[in-house]
Amino acid sequence: MKRTGLKLVIVVGLLAACAHGQTQTAHYSLLDNLNEKLSHQNLLDRIVFGTPTKKYVPIVSGAEFLLDYLGSDPQYKKDRIWSRLAHTHPISTVAYREEDNPSTHVVFLKLPDGSLKADMHLDGNGPQKLWPHLDEFLFHKLTFQDNNQDRMNANLKQSLAREANGEEAFISNRERTLLFIHETLGLQPMVAAFGNTMFRHYAHELVWKTESRYEPMLYRFEGSLFRHTLKNSIEFGVASWRQEDTRYKSSGKQDAGARV
User: Fold this and answer.
1) Are 197 and 220 in contact (CB under 8 A)?
2) Cα distance between residue 259 and residue 192, in whole Å
3) Which of helix, strand or coil describes residue 29?
4) pLDDT tens-digit map of 116-140
């Protein structure tokens, strides 16, 4: 049963990775999307971009203004040290990341001559989504892929339309699928399964010593992953059928009946 469960987890992971990694001919570039974003914020006349690279677009004019602007905008959050470890100069850089999806990410570095170097790119997840952001980073490293700018453009237009209409962000079928992948096959469930395995293994070994046979650690890990995958798969199937939003959010209701 557990061997079958592990195979199921592996098959689901491979299928999800293949679906997530499909590439098509790009119609939009990173520069296109950044220009659309800045145009919406009326910042195009204050920011001048340089020659785009594969992963970011340098800012050749307006870096000082943009640093002050992002610091006073509540929609942007300053990166903590852990999120700057992938940068070339994690200690001396200052970075701001937007809360929305796609998330505008701007990195500033003070040069020895006193000038400010800055570059900008788009991420698929904001800073409040730690584990999905790490999953995205790991996926790009393993597959040697960058963000799909066509998908970024679609998410950007969807986000701007919701903002203009004052609508609450509704989870689409694709967003629900990606959430299922992150919560089932991402780093967070793997870390949780490993922690649960270690606790159960050593608890039985050190506390309940009267047991005649201890379950091998690998079997415990497989079982934990299988149970988690099965639970999330049922939730994903029902949510897709009923078109429900599976993300946790506060209901605002205090009475016990409503909460139940």
Assistant:
1) yes
2) 27
3) coil
4) 999 998 887 665 566 666 677 666 6
The residue among 253 and 151 whose pLDDT is bigger is: 151
Find where tokens 């939009």 sit: 28
How does the average pLDDT of the chain come out, rounded? 75
Question: 3-state DSSP call for residue 146?
Answer: coil
Instruction: Indicate the DSSP class of residue 145.
Output: -
Pairwise CA distance, residues 241 & 173, whole Å: 10
How far apart, in whole angstroms, are the C-alpha atoms of residue 44 and residue 88?
A: 27
Locate all alpha helices (DSSP H) within the chain, ordered by sequence. Answer: 2-20, 30-40, 63-72, 130-143, 149-165, 173-185, 187-206, 217-242, 256-259
What 3-state class would DSSP assign to 58?
strand
**Cβ pair 116, 67 in contact under 8 A:** yes
Residues 32 and 11: their CA atoms lie apart, in Å, by: 37
Query: Looking at residues 147-160, what average pLDDT do you find?
Result: 78
The mean per-residue pLDDT over the stretch 146-152 comes to 76
Convert 42-58 to b/e letters by CB count within 10 Å (16 or more is b): eebeebebeebeeebbe
C-alpha–C-alpha distance, residues 166 and 158, integer Å: 12
Phi-psi region of 211 (alpha: psi -120 to 50; beta: other; left: phi over 0): beta
Residue 32, amino acid: D
Asked if 159 and 187 count as a contact pair (C-beta separation under 8 A), the reply is: no
